[in-house]
Design a protein that fits this description.
Number of strands: 12
Strand order of the largest sheet: 7-6-5-8-10-9-11-12
Number of domains: 5
Protein backbone atom coordinates (compact mmCIF):
# COMPACT_ATOMS: atom_id res chain seq x y z
CA UNK A 1 0.00 0.00 0.00
CA UNK A 2 2.77 2.45 0.96
CA UNK A 3 4.84 1.36 -2.06
CA UNK A 4 2.02 2.17 -4.43
CA UNK A 5 1.39 5.50 -2.68
CA UNK A 6 5.07 6.35 -3.03
CA UNK A 7 5.07 5.43 -6.69
CA UNK A 8 2.08 7.64 -7.38
CA UNK A 9 3.65 10.45 -5.33
CA UNK A 10 6.68 10.53 -7.64
CA UNK A 11 4.45 10.85 -10.71
CA UNK A 12 5.06 7.25 -11.83
CA UNK A 13 2.41 5.46 -13.83
CA UNK A 14 0.92 2.74 -11.62
CA UNK A 15 -0.91 -0.35 -12.75
CA UNK A 16 -2.53 -2.21 -9.91
CA UNK A 17 -5.08 -4.80 -8.92
CA UNK A 18 -8.00 -3.14 -7.08
CA UNK A 19 -9.02 -6.50 -5.62
CA UNK A 20 -5.65 -7.32 -4.04
CA UNK A 21 -6.04 -7.72 -0.28
CA UNK A 22 -2.89 -5.70 0.55
CA UNK A 23 -3.65 -2.73 -1.70
CA UNK A 24 -6.47 -0.24 -1.12
CA UNK A 25 -7.63 1.62 -4.21
CA UNK A 26 -10.96 2.91 -2.92
CA UNK A 27 -9.74 6.50 -3.48
CA UNK A 28 -8.16 5.85 -6.88
CA UNK A 29 -10.23 6.34 -10.03
CA UNK A 30 -9.33 4.20 -13.03
CA UNK A 31 -8.00 6.29 -15.89
CA UNK A 32 -7.66 9.45 -13.80
CA UNK A 33 -5.19 8.62 -11.01
CA UNK A 34 -3.90 5.23 -12.25
CA UNK A 35 -4.71 2.33 -14.56
CA UNK A 36 -6.32 -0.65 -12.86
CA UNK A 37 -6.52 -4.27 -14.00
CA UNK A 38 -7.75 -7.61 -12.71
CA UNK A 39 -4.96 -10.00 -11.77
CA UNK A 40 -7.18 -12.93 -12.63
CA UNK A 41 -7.74 -11.71 -16.19
CA UNK A 42 -4.51 -11.16 -18.20
CA UNK A 43 -6.42 -9.40 -20.95
CA UNK A 44 -7.22 -6.50 -18.62
CA UNK A 45 -3.52 -6.04 -17.91
CA UNK A 46 -2.76 -6.01 -21.65
CA UNK A 47 -5.49 -3.44 -22.28
CA UNK A 48 -4.09 -1.28 -19.46
CA UNK A 49 -0.65 -1.31 -21.10
CA UNK A 50 -2.20 -0.44 -24.46
CA UNK A 51 -3.76 2.68 -22.86
CA UNK A 52 -0.38 4.08 -21.83
CA UNK A 53 2.06 2.81 -24.49
CA UNK A 54 2.45 4.37 -27.91
CA UNK A 55 4.75 3.68 -30.85
CA UNK A 56 7.71 5.65 -29.43
CA UNK A 57 7.02 5.55 -25.71
CA UNK A 58 4.43 6.63 -23.18
CA UNK A 59 1.39 8.53 -24.36
CA UNK A 60 0.47 11.99 -23.09
CA UNK A 61 -2.43 10.35 -21.27
CA UNK A 62 0.04 8.42 -19.12
CA UNK A 63 1.81 11.60 -18.05
CA UNK A 64 -1.44 13.40 -17.18
CA UNK A 65 -2.66 10.40 -15.18
CA UNK A 66 0.68 10.24 -13.37
CA UNK A 67 0.43 13.91 -12.39
CA UNK A 68 -3.13 13.47 -11.11
CA UNK A 69 -2.02 10.42 -9.15
CA UNK A 70 0.86 12.40 -7.67
CA UNK A 71 -1.50 15.08 -6.37
CA UNK A 72 -3.91 12.48 -4.95
CA UNK A 73 -1.14 10.55 -3.21
CA UNK A 74 0.29 13.71 -1.64
CA UNK A 75 -3.13 14.54 -0.20
CA UNK A 76 -3.52 10.96 1.04
CA UNK A 77 -0.08 10.99 2.69
CA UNK A 78 -0.78 14.37 4.29
CA UNK A 79 -4.03 13.04 5.72
CA UNK A 80 -2.31 9.93 7.11
CA UNK A 81 0.44 12.07 8.63
CA UNK A 82 -2.05 14.41 10.32
CA UNK A 83 -4.14 11.56 11.73
CA UNK A 84 -1.07 9.75 13.07
CA UNK A 85 0.24 12.95 14.69
CA UNK A 86 -3.13 13.71 16.30
CA UNK A 87 -3.34 10.15 17.67
CA UNK A 88 0.10 10.58 19.20
CA UNK A 89 -0.86 13.89 20.83
CA UNK A 90 -4.09 12.43 22.22
CA UNK A 91 -2.12 9.62 23.85
CA UNK A 92 0.48 11.84 25.58
CA UNK A 93 -1.31 15.13 26.33
CA UNK A 94 -3.37 15.57 29.48
CA UNK A 95 -5.59 18.62 29.19
CA UNK A 96 -6.52 20.61 32.32
CA UNK A 97 -10.10 20.56 33.49
CA UNK A 98 -10.73 24.17 32.41
CA UNK A 99 -9.44 23.67 28.85
CA UNK A 100 -11.72 23.41 25.85
CA UNK A 101 -10.98 20.00 24.41
CA UNK A 102 -10.15 19.74 20.68
CA UNK A 103 -12.18 17.67 18.27
CA UNK A 104 -11.51 13.96 17.93
CA UNK A 105 -9.21 12.83 15.12
CA UNK A 106 -12.09 10.80 13.71
CA UNK A 107 -13.67 14.07 12.59
CA UNK A 108 -10.65 15.01 10.49
CA UNK A 109 -11.73 15.03 6.86
CA UNK A 110 -9.71 14.32 3.79
CA UNK A 111 -9.12 17.56 1.95
CA UNK A 112 -7.31 18.77 -1.13
CA UNK A 113 -4.26 20.73 -0.11
CA UNK A 114 -2.84 23.81 -1.81
CA UNK A 115 0.63 22.59 -2.65
CA UNK A 116 1.68 25.58 -4.78
CA UNK A 117 2.89 27.72 -1.82
CA UNK A 118 4.98 24.81 -0.55
CA UNK A 119 6.48 24.11 -3.96
CA UNK A 120 7.29 27.78 -4.58
CA UNK A 121 9.06 27.95 -1.23
CA UNK A 122 10.97 24.79 -2.06
CA UNK A 123 11.98 26.30 -5.40
CA UNK A 124 13.44 29.32 -3.60
CA UNK A 125 15.37 26.99 -1.34
CA UNK A 126 16.75 25.05 -4.30
CA UNK A 127 18.36 28.21 -5.69
CA UNK A 128 21.14 27.82 -3.14
CA UNK A 129 21.44 24.04 -3.49
CA UNK A 130 24.59 24.34 -5.60
CA UNK A 131 26.34 26.30 -2.85
CA UNK A 132 25.23 23.75 -0.30
CA UNK A 133 26.73 20.96 -2.41
CA UNK A 134 30.09 22.71 -2.35
CA UNK A 135 29.88 23.20 1.43
CA UNK A 136 28.91 19.61 2.14
CA UNK A 137 31.59 18.31 -0.20
CA UNK A 138 34.26 20.43 1.44
CA UNK A 139 33.29 19.11 4.88
CA UNK A 140 33.59 15.55 3.63
CA UNK A 141 36.97 16.37 2.12
CA UNK A 142 38.24 17.83 5.39
CA UNK A 143 37.20 14.69 7.24
CA UNK A 144 39.31 12.63 4.87
CA UNK A 145 42.19 15.13 4.95
CA UNK A 146 41.93 15.67 1.22
CA UNK A 147 41.03 18.49 -1.09
CA UNK A 148 37.36 19.19 -1.64
CA UNK A 149 37.77 19.09 -5.38
CA UNK A 150 38.80 15.43 -5.31
CA UNK A 151 35.69 14.33 -3.44
CA UNK A 152 32.90 15.25 -5.77
CA UNK A 153 32.02 15.27 -9.42
CA UNK A 154 29.11 16.79 -11.23
CA UNK A 155 27.49 15.02 -14.11
CA UNK A 156 25.80 17.69 -16.22
CA UNK A 157 24.18 15.09 -18.47
CA UNK A 158 22.22 13.47 -15.62
CA UNK A 159 19.84 16.23 -14.42
CA UNK A 160 22.64 18.06 -12.53
CA UNK A 161 23.06 15.33 -9.93
CA UNK A 162 26.30 15.00 -7.93
CA UNK A 163 28.08 11.91 -6.66
CA UNK A 164 30.18 12.11 -3.51
CA UNK A 165 33.18 10.11 -2.45
CA UNK A 166 32.01 9.43 1.11
CA UNK A 167 34.40 8.05 3.76
CA UNK A 168 34.45 4.28 3.93
CA UNK A 169 34.74 2.13 7.03
CA UNK A 170 38.46 1.66 6.43
CA UNK A 171 38.91 5.45 6.38
CA UNK A 172 37.22 5.77 9.77
CA UNK A 173 39.35 2.89 11.13
CA UNK A 174 42.53 4.63 9.99
CA UNK A 175 41.40 7.88 11.61
CA UNK A 176 40.65 6.06 14.86
CA UNK A 177 44.09 4.43 14.87
CA UNK A 178 45.76 7.81 14.35
CA UNK A 179 43.85 9.31 17.29
CA UNK A 180 44.75 6.37 19.54
CA UNK A 181 48.43 6.63 18.57
CA UNK A 182 48.49 10.39 19.30
CA UNK A 183 46.83 9.83 22.68
CA UNK A 184 49.40 7.16 23.66
CA UNK A 185 52.27 9.38 22.55
CA UNK A 186 50.94 12.33 24.57
CA UNK A 187 50.65 10.21 27.72
CA UNK A 188 54.20 8.90 27.29
CA UNK A 189 55.53 12.46 27.00
CA UNK A 190 53.69 13.45 30.19
CA UNK A 191 55.16 10.49 32.08
CA UNK A 192 58.66 11.35 30.85
CA UNK A 193 58.24 14.97 31.99
CA UNK A 194 57.22 13.74 35.45
CA UNK A 195 60.37 11.58 35.75
CA UNK A 196 62.78 14.29 34.65
CA UNK A 197 64.59 15.83 37.60
CA UNK A 198 63.86 19.53 37.84
CA UNK A 199 66.06 22.08 39.62
CA UNK A 200 64.78 23.33 42.96
CA UNK A 201 63.25 26.78 42.92
CA UNK A 202 64.33 29.57 45.20
CA UNK A 203 61.91 30.93 47.78
CA UNK A 204 61.45 34.08 45.70
CA UNK A 205 60.41 32.03 42.69
CA UNK A 206 58.02 29.96 44.82
CA UNK A 207 56.38 33.11 46.23
CA UNK A 208 56.22 34.64 42.76
CA UNK A 209 54.47 31.57 41.31
CA UNK A 210 52.08 31.44 44.27
CA UNK A 211 51.13 35.09 43.83
CA UNK A 212 50.66 34.54 40.11
CA UNK A 213 48.31 31.59 40.69
CA UNK A 214 46.34 33.61 43.23
CA UNK A 215 45.90 36.40 40.71
CA UNK A 216 44.65 33.89 38.15
CA UNK A 217 41.94 32.63 40.51
CA UNK A 218 38.56 34.41 40.36
CA UNK A 219 37.92 36.39 43.48
CA UNK A 220 35.20 35.13 45.78
CA UNK A 221 33.61 38.56 45.89
CA UNK A 222 34.22 39.31 42.21
CA UNK A 223 31.04 40.33 40.43
CA UNK A 224 30.11 38.47 37.27
CA UNK A 225 29.21 40.01 33.94
CA UNK A 226 25.46 39.83 34.51
CA UNK A 227 25.68 41.63 37.84
CA UNK A 228 27.86 44.34 36.31
CA UNK A 229 25.28 44.87 33.55
CA UNK A 230 22.53 45.36 36.13
CA UNK A 231 24.55 47.85 38.17
CA UNK A 232 22.61 51.09 38.45
CA UNK A 233 19.38 49.60 37.12
CA UNK A 234 16.23 49.94 39.22
CA UNK A 235 14.61 46.59 38.41
CA UNK A 236 15.41 43.00 37.52
CA UNK A 237 12.80 40.56 36.19
CA UNK A 238 13.44 36.91 37.04
CA UNK A 239 12.17 34.54 34.36
CA UNK A 240 11.10 31.25 35.90
CA UNK A 241 11.68 28.10 33.87
CA UNK A 242 12.15 24.40 34.37
CA UNK A 243 14.55 22.52 32.14
CA UNK A 244 16.28 23.11 28.84
CA UNK A 245 13.06 22.97 26.83
CA UNK A 246 12.15 26.48 28.01
CA UNK A 247 15.44 28.11 26.95
CA UNK A 248 14.12 29.39 23.58
CA UNK A 249 11.35 31.28 25.40
CA UNK A 250 13.69 33.16 27.74
CA UNK A 251 15.00 36.68 27.23
CA UNK A 252 18.54 38.02 27.30
CA UNK A 253 19.80 41.34 28.50
CA UNK A 254 20.34 43.27 31.69
CA UNK A 255 16.61 43.57 32.46
CA UNK A 256 16.09 39.81 32.75
CA UNK A 257 17.68 37.03 34.72
CA UNK A 258 16.66 33.39 34.58
CA UNK A 259 15.91 31.18 37.57
CA UNK A 260 15.59 27.45 37.03
CA UNK A 261 13.62 24.96 39.09
CA UNK A 262 15.64 22.03 37.72
CA UNK A 263 18.93 21.34 39.42
CA UNK A 264 21.87 21.92 37.11
CA UNK A 265 19.70 23.12 34.18
CA UNK A 266 20.99 26.68 33.95
CA UNK A 267 21.72 28.16 30.55
CA UNK A 268 25.39 28.16 29.53
CA UNK A 269 27.22 31.49 29.62
CA UNK A 270 24.53 33.05 31.78
CA UNK A 271 24.15 34.07 35.41
CA UNK A 272 20.86 32.24 35.94
CA UNK A 273 19.90 31.41 39.52
CA UNK A 274 19.56 27.79 40.61
CA UNK A 275 16.48 27.74 42.85
CA UNK A 276 17.27 24.26 44.19
CA UNK A 277 20.64 25.45 45.47
CA UNK A 278 19.01 28.37 47.31
CA UNK A 279 16.10 26.41 48.80
CA UNK A 280 16.72 22.77 49.62
CA UNK A 281 13.04 21.81 49.80
CA UNK A 282 12.87 22.20 46.00
CA UNK A 283 15.22 19.24 45.69
CA UNK A 284 12.22 17.13 46.69
CA UNK A 285 10.20 16.42 43.54
CA UNK A 286 6.93 16.34 45.47
CA UNK A 287 7.30 19.85 46.88
CA UNK A 288 8.76 21.21 43.65
CA UNK A 289 5.70 20.00 41.73
CA UNK A 290 3.40 21.17 44.51
CA UNK A 291 4.65 24.77 44.56
CA UNK A 292 5.53 25.05 40.86
CA UNK A 293 6.87 28.47 39.89
CA UNK A 294 6.20 29.92 43.33
CA UNK A 295 9.10 27.81 44.58
CA UNK A 296 11.42 30.10 42.60
CA UNK A 297 9.99 33.13 44.42
CA UNK A 298 10.57 31.45 47.78
CA UNK A 299 14.15 30.74 46.69
CA UNK A 300 14.79 34.40 45.76
CA UNK A 301 13.24 35.68 49.00
CA UNK A 302 15.39 33.32 51.08
CA UNK A 303 18.32 35.58 52.12
CA UNK A 304 17.49 37.94 49.27
CA UNK A 305 20.48 40.21 49.92
CA UNK A 306 22.81 37.58 48.49
CA UNK A 307 21.14 37.58 45.07
CA UNK A 308 19.05 40.75 44.63
CA UNK A 309 20.08 44.27 45.66
CA UNK A 310 17.83 46.42 43.44
CA UNK A 311 14.87 48.52 44.67
CA UNK A 312 12.36 46.79 42.36
CA UNK A 313 11.87 43.12 41.62
CA UNK A 314 9.77 41.34 39.04
CA UNK A 315 8.93 37.86 37.80
CA UNK A 316 7.76 36.42 34.52
CA UNK A 317 6.94 32.85 33.64
CA UNK A 318 8.54 31.34 30.55
CA UNK A 319 5.00 30.53 29.44
CA UNK A 320 4.35 34.24 28.90
CA UNK A 321 6.59 34.22 25.83
CA UNK A 322 4.93 31.01 24.65
CA UNK A 323 1.53 32.70 24.87
CA UNK A 324 2.91 35.88 23.25
CA UNK A 325 2.06 38.06 26.25
CA UNK A 326 5.60 38.88 27.34
CA UNK A 327 6.84 42.46 27.39
CA UNK A 328 7.71 44.12 24.10
CA UNK A 329 10.63 46.53 23.75
CA UNK A 330 8.36 49.56 24.12
CA UNK A 331 6.77 48.07 27.25
CA UNK A 332 10.22 47.34 28.69
CA UNK A 333 11.31 50.94 28.08
CA UNK A 334 8.15 52.25 29.74
CA UNK A 335 8.68 50.00 32.74
CA UNK A 336 12.35 50.97 33.14
CA UNK A 337 11.60 54.69 32.85
CA UNK A 338 8.85 54.40 35.45
CA UNK A 339 11.13 52.50 37.83
CA UNK A 340 14.04 54.90 37.26
CA UNK A 341 11.93 57.95 38.13
CA UNK A 342 11.36 59.05 41.67
CA UNK A 343 8.53 56.60 42.09
CA UNK A 344 8.46 55.47 45.71
CA UNK A 345 4.79 54.50 45.63
CA UNK A 346 3.76 51.04 46.77
CA UNK A 347 2.43 49.76 43.44
CA UNK A 348 2.34 46.52 41.49
CA UNK A 349 2.61 46.46 37.68
CA UNK A 350 1.35 43.39 35.82
CA UNK A 351 0.89 42.59 32.12
CA UNK A 352 -0.77 39.16 31.81
CA UNK A 353 -4.51 39.45 32.53
CA UNK A 354 -6.44 36.56 34.00
CA UNK A 355 -9.51 37.17 31.83
CA UNK A 356 -9.14 39.15 28.63
CA UNK A 357 -12.87 39.76 28.12
CA UNK A 358 -13.19 41.23 31.65
CA UNK A 359 -16.57 39.59 32.23
CA UNK A 360 -15.90 36.63 34.53
CA UNK A 361 -16.16 36.80 38.29
CA UNK A 362 -12.84 36.42 40.12
CA UNK A 363 -13.85 33.54 42.36
CA UNK A 364 -15.80 31.82 39.56
CA UNK A 365 -12.68 31.83 37.41
CA UNK A 366 -10.67 30.49 40.33
CA UNK A 367 -13.19 27.67 40.80
CA UNK A 368 -12.95 26.86 37.09
CA UNK A 369 -9.17 26.59 37.33
CA UNK A 370 -9.17 24.48 40.52
CA UNK A 371 -11.76 21.76 39.92
CA UNK A 372 -14.53 23.79 41.56
CA UNK A 373 -12.95 23.85 45.04
CA UNK A 374 -11.08 27.17 45.01
CA UNK A 375 -13.53 29.13 47.16
CA UNK A 376 -14.03 26.35 49.67
CA UNK A 377 -10.36 25.55 50.24
CA UNK A 378 -9.26 29.19 50.22
CA UNK A 379 -11.83 30.03 52.88
CA UNK A 380 -10.79 27.04 55.01
CA UNK A 381 -7.09 27.88 54.66
CA UNK A 382 -7.71 31.56 55.46
CA UNK A 383 -9.74 30.65 58.55
CA UNK A 384 -7.10 28.17 59.69
CA UNK A 385 -4.31 30.70 59.13
CA UNK A 386 -5.87 33.41 61.32
CA UNK A 387 -7.68 31.10 63.74
CA UNK A 388 -11.13 32.46 62.88
CA UNK A 389 -14.24 30.77 64.30
CA UNK A 390 -16.69 28.98 62.04
CA UNK A 391 -19.32 31.70 62.09
CA UNK A 392 -16.99 34.42 60.76
CA UNK A 393 -16.65 34.98 57.00
CA UNK A 394 -13.21 33.97 55.75
CA UNK A 395 -13.43 34.53 51.98
CA UNK A 396 -12.06 37.98 51.01
CA UNK A 397 -14.50 39.71 48.64
CA UNK A 398 -13.16 40.45 45.15
CA UNK A 399 -15.11 42.98 43.04
CA UNK A 400 -16.35 42.38 39.52
CA UNK A 401 -15.65 45.92 38.29
CA UNK A 402 -14.53 45.07 34.76
CA UNK A 403 -10.82 45.62 35.43
CA UNK A 404 -7.98 43.18 34.89
CA UNK A 405 -6.50 40.75 37.41
CA UNK A 406 -2.96 39.39 37.25
CA UNK A 407 -1.98 35.83 36.42
CA UNK A 408 0.98 33.77 35.20
CA UNK A 409 3.37 35.26 37.80
CA UNK A 410 4.17 38.24 35.55
CA UNK A 411 4.47 41.40 37.62
CA UNK A 412 6.86 43.96 39.16
CA UNK A 413 6.71 45.50 42.64
CA UNK A 414 9.10 47.17 45.14
CA UNK A 415 11.47 44.72 46.78
CA UNK A 416 10.22 45.45 50.35
CA UNK A 417 6.65 44.79 49.19
CA UNK A 418 7.78 41.52 47.64
CA UNK A 419 9.18 40.35 50.98
CA UNK A 420 5.90 41.23 52.70
CA UNK A 421 3.99 39.32 50.05
CA UNK A 422 6.23 36.27 50.49
CA UNK A 423 5.73 36.46 54.27
CA UNK A 424 1.96 36.27 53.78
CA UNK A 425 2.22 33.55 51.12
CA UNK A 426 4.41 31.25 53.20
CA UNK A 427 1.85 31.21 56.01
CA UNK A 428 -1.07 30.77 53.60
CA UNK A 429 0.58 27.86 51.77
CA UNK A 430 1.40 26.19 55.08
CA UNK A 431 -2.20 26.59 56.21
CA UNK A 432 -3.48 25.22 52.90
CA UNK A 433 -1.09 22.28 53.11
CA UNK A 434 -2.15 21.49 56.68
CA UNK A 435 -5.77 21.08 55.50
CA UNK A 436 -4.52 18.17 53.45
CA UNK A 437 -3.05 16.61 56.57
CA UNK A 438 0.45 17.21 55.13
CA UNK A 439 -0.29 14.25 52.89
CA UNK A 440 2.38 13.59 50.27
CA UNK A 441 0.01 11.68 47.99
CA UNK A 442 -1.06 13.76 44.94
CA UNK A 443 -4.32 11.82 44.72
CA UNK A 444 -5.57 13.57 47.88
CA UNK A 445 -5.51 17.01 46.19
CA UNK A 446 -8.95 18.57 45.75
CA UNK A 447 -7.75 21.45 43.57
CA UNK A 448 -7.19 19.28 40.50
CA UNK A 449 -9.28 16.99 38.34
CA UNK A 450 -6.65 15.18 36.26
CA UNK A 451 -3.51 13.48 37.52
CA UNK A 452 -1.16 16.29 36.36
CA UNK A 453 -3.40 18.86 38.08
CA UNK A 454 -3.29 16.89 41.30
CA UNK A 455 0.49 16.63 41.11
CA UNK A 456 0.75 20.43 40.71
CA UNK A 457 -1.89 20.98 43.34
CA UNK A 458 -1.26 24.56 44.53
CA UNK A 459 -0.01 26.02 41.24
CA UNK A 460 -3.22 27.57 39.93
CA UNK A 461 -4.44 29.03 43.22
CA UNK A 462 -1.00 30.56 43.87
CA UNK A 463 -1.05 32.29 40.47
CA UNK A 464 -3.92 34.54 41.55
CA UNK A 465 -2.90 34.97 45.20
CA UNK A 466 -1.01 38.18 44.43
CA UNK A 467 -4.32 39.84 43.43
CA UNK A 468 -5.93 39.14 46.80
CA UNK A 469 -2.89 40.36 48.72
CA UNK A 470 -2.43 43.53 46.61
CA UNK A 471 -6.12 44.45 46.62
CA UNK A 472 -6.79 44.03 50.35
CA UNK A 473 -3.44 45.44 51.50
CA UNK A 474 -4.19 48.72 49.73
CA UNK A 475 -1.54 48.47 46.99
CA UNK A 476 -1.98 50.42 43.79
CA UNK A 477 -2.58 47.99 40.91
CA UNK A 478 -1.57 49.03 37.38
CA UNK A 479 -2.06 47.02 34.18
CA UNK A 480 0.77 47.46 31.67
CA UNK A 481 -0.10 46.64 28.07
CA UNK A 482 2.67 44.23 27.00
CA UNK A 483 2.51 45.39 23.37
CA UNK A 484 2.06 49.15 23.45
CA UNK A 485 3.48 49.84 26.91
CA UNK A 486 0.46 51.88 27.96
CA UNK A 487 -0.40 51.67 31.65
CA UNK A 488 -3.74 52.09 33.39
CA UNK A 489 -4.63 51.81 37.05
CA UNK A 490 -7.02 48.99 37.91
CA UNK A 491 -9.41 48.66 40.85
CA UNK A 492 -9.05 52.27 42.01
CA UNK A 493 -8.29 52.45 45.71
CA UNK A 494 -10.85 55.15 46.37
CA UNK A 495 -13.52 52.85 44.93
CA UNK A 496 -12.62 49.78 46.99
CA UNK A 497 -15.57 49.46 49.30
CA UNK A 498 -14.77 46.13 50.99
CA UNK A 499 -11.13 45.82 51.98
CA UNK A 500 -9.93 43.45 54.69
CA UNK A 501 -6.96 45.61 55.60
CA UNK A 502 -6.72 44.28 59.16
CA UNK A 503 -5.90 40.77 57.93
CA UNK A 504 -3.15 42.05 55.62
CA UNK A 505 -1.59 44.54 58.00
CA UNK A 506 2.20 44.11 58.10
CA UNK A 507 2.41 44.41 61.88
CA UNK A 508 -0.03 41.52 62.30
CA UNK A 509 1.69 39.37 59.69
CA UNK A 510 5.09 40.09 61.23
CA UNK A 511 3.93 38.98 64.68
CA UNK A 512 2.42 35.82 63.20
CA UNK A 513 5.67 35.11 61.36
CA UNK A 514 7.69 35.53 64.56
CA UNK A 515 5.34 33.21 66.46
CA UNK A 516 5.84 30.50 63.84
CA UNK A 517 9.61 31.07 63.91
CA UNK A 518 9.69 30.72 67.69
CA UNK A 519 7.61 27.57 67.44
CA UNK A 520 10.00 26.12 64.84
CA UNK A 521 13.07 27.19 66.83
CA UNK A 522 11.80 25.51 69.99
CA UNK A 523 10.61 22.40 68.13
CA UNK A 524 7.14 22.71 69.65
CA UNK A 525 5.07 22.36 66.47
CA UNK A 526 2.17 19.94 67.10
CA UNK A 527 1.94 16.83 64.99
CA UNK A 528 4.45 14.34 63.67
CA UNK A 529 4.12 15.21 59.98
CA UNK A 530 6.67 17.32 58.16
CA UNK A 531 5.96 21.02 58.66
CA UNK A 532 6.05 22.99 55.40
CA UNK A 533 6.48 26.55 56.71
CA UNK A 534 10.12 26.28 57.93
CA UNK A 535 11.08 24.65 54.63
CA UNK A 536 9.96 27.57 52.46
CA UNK A 537 12.30 30.25 53.76
CA UNK A 538 14.27 31.78 56.58
CA UNK A 539 13.25 31.17 60.21
CA UNK A 540 13.93 34.21 62.38
CA UNK A 541 12.52 35.85 65.50
CA UNK A 542 14.12 38.18 68.14
CA UNK A 543 14.92 35.25 70.42
CA UNK A 544 17.31 33.85 67.81
CA UNK A 545 19.19 37.16 67.65
CA UNK A 546 19.39 37.34 71.44
CA UNK A 547 20.69 33.78 71.66
CA UNK A 548 23.30 34.41 68.97
CA UNK A 549 24.39 37.59 70.76
CA UNK A 550 24.67 35.69 74.04
CA UNK A 551 26.65 32.87 72.45
CA UNK A 552 29.01 35.37 70.88
CA UNK A 553 29.52 37.08 74.27
CA UNK A 554 30.22 33.74 75.99
CA UNK A 555 32.79 32.83 73.34
CA UNK A 556 34.47 36.19 73.84
CA UNK A 557 34.67 35.62 77.63
CA UNK A 558 36.06 32.11 77.12
CA UNK A 559 38.72 33.47 74.81
CA UNK A 560 39.75 36.11 77.36
CA UNK A 561 39.85 33.51 80.16
CA UNK A 562 42.04 31.15 78.12
CA UNK A 563 44.43 33.98 77.25
CA UNK A 564 44.71 34.93 80.93
CA UNK A 565 45.37 31.33 81.99
CA UNK A 566 48.10 30.97 79.35
CA UNK A 567 49.73 34.18 80.53
CA UNK A 568 49.75 33.00 84.17
CA UNK A 569 51.23 29.63 83.21
CA UNK A 570 53.93 31.34 81.17
CA UNK A 571 54.81 33.61 84.09
CA UNK A 572 54.86 30.71 86.55
CA UNK A 573 56.84 28.05 84.70
CA UNK A 574 57.84 29.66 81.47
CA UNK A 575 61.41 30.30 80.21
CA UNK A 576 63.17 33.18 81.92
CA UNK A 577 66.13 34.81 80.22
CA UNK A 578 69.27 35.12 82.37
CA UNK A 579 70.62 38.59 82.97
CA UNK A 580 73.46 39.62 80.69
CA UNK A 581 76.93 39.19 82.13
CA UNK A 582 76.12 36.17 84.29
Amino acid sequence: HLLNKGSICFATVVLGDPFHKHVCYFQVTDGIHAFLFNSGDPSTAASAFMRILGEKGLLDTAYSVALEGKLLSKNMLAYDCIVAHVKLLESVLHYPSDARLPLSFSQVKERTWLWDPFESKAALGNSSSEDERHIHTRIAGILLGESAQSNWTIDSDSNDTSSYDYPTQSDWDDLSEVEIFEDIEMREMEEIDERVEKPLLTWDEVYRNARKSERMKPEGNERDEGELERTGQPVCIYEIYRGEGAWPFLHHGSLYRGITLSKGARRPRSDDVDAVMRLSVLDDTYYRDLLCEFGAMFAIANRIDTVHKLPWIGFQSWRAAGRKVSLSESAEETLEKTMAGENHEDVIYYWVPMDTDQTSNFWSTCDCLNAGHCRTLFEDAFRNMYGLPEGVAALPPMPNDGDYWSTLHSWVMPTPSFLKFIMFTRMFVDSLHSLNGNNTEPASCLLGASQPEKRHCYCRILEILVNIWAYHSGRKMVYLNPVTGESKEQHLREERNEMWVKFFDFTLLKSMDEDLAEEADDGMHPGTDQWLWPLTGQVFWPGIADREREEKYIKKLDKKLKSKVKLLERQKSGYKQKPLGQ
